């Protein structure tokens, strides 16, 4: 196996620049499909690298697709980073906190984007070692906007055709210490769907509930009944989560309203279970409502499909990590019920999504993703860059043999 001794030094030289970029992106968060400044920063960082093909505004979005070595004859691999922030008010207290009210990078996409810029820069410096093309996908709208599907459908995996794709997400839980590499074969992250239920009853005076059909009571019964689907309709070997996260009804404490609205999320690792749950929920909600003399309308909106990793791609990641002496960093990751639109790429080409452990260790209470006090751990940037650089350099040699 070929080794590239200068990679580690090249990464060390650019770390201050990449950390500065990460902090700049953190201070200027942008929501889904609004990542104009972020995309412009990415392009600006890569200007002057003459052998790159940079496609800004990809697919009519804020996405940026960069190709290195487009004319090389070997197999092509892709790397993806998400760019969007979340609608949260930051309370982390870091000096580079969000300057935009009600928006913050609470999931580490600032770190993912900055790391991928670092990967491009290092690979450009050693591009004479590449035997196949590398595509870098800077993707908008992972947080519910389905930007992965938009870019995939717009041709991000074509010209040249991608043979395999890889992506990472930082993971700041104690079981994933900083700079660990967590891999999971097969279903890794859940498919999702949105649930919206409108319960219609008969309103009236709260002192005379017998003259009413109380949609709040019916809604509470529906919530209970939905959990019976999880515990009694699905094998415990096939995880299903149904969470009602909003329950809105009423205008005063002495009025029984005529309507209540419930909404939430459905999650499953198996797409068959996820699809079957749609029908179960429709029947469960409507029959529960009917049993109390009410009616119910159910709307289920498809979310992301499950992230299903390919064993071959994970094996390649592990072999590359071992080739640079990092075999002890590799951890088995358990599937999680969060969703990720990286799933759309994996529907078309083999690949793997992995967790870059980012917990600093010790007993420190570290805010998890989507918390207003969260901040990306800069100490893992070098690891994220190094593994993806080494993967790209060795992909053309190893992929046909894995």
Architecture blueprint of SSEs:
Layout: H1 7-27, H2 36-46, E1 52-58, E2 63-68, E3 77-82, H3 109-125, E4 134-139, H4 147-153, E5 164-171, E6 181-183, E7 186-189, E8 191-200, E9 204-205, H5 215-232, E10 240-249, E11 255-256, E12 259-268, H6 271-291, E13 295-302, E14 307-309, H7 311-323, E15 330-332, H8 343-346, E16 351-357, H9 381-398
Parallel strand pairs: 3-4, 3-5, 5-16, 6-15
Antiparallel strand pairs: 1-2, 2-4, 6-16, 7-14, 8-12, 8-13, 9-11, 10-12
Structure description:
The longest helix has 21 residues, at 7-27. With 402 residues, this protein is α/β, with parallel strands linked by helices. It has two domains: 7-188 and 306-401, Aminopeptidase (3-Layer(aba) Sandwich); 191-302, Alpha-Beta Plaits (2-Layer Sandwich), CATH 3.30.70.360. The chain has nine helices and 16 strands. It has helices at residues 7-27, 36-46, 109-125, 147-153, 215-232, 271-291, 311-323, 343-346, 381-398; strands at residues 52-58, 63-68, 77-82, 134-139, 164-171, 181-183, 186-189, 191-200, 204-205, 240-249, 255-256, 259-268, 295-302, 307-309, 330-332, 351-357. Strand 1 (52-58) and strand 2 (63-68) form a beta hairpin. The strands form four sheets. It has an eight-stranded mixed beta sheet, with helices on both faces. A four-stranded antiparallel beta sheet has the order 10-12-8-13, with helices on one face.
Keywords:
Alpha-Beta Plaits; 9 helices; four-stranded antiparallel β-sheet; Aminopeptidase; elongated; 16 strands; 32% helix; 402 residues; eight-stranded mixed β-sheet; single chain; alpha/beta
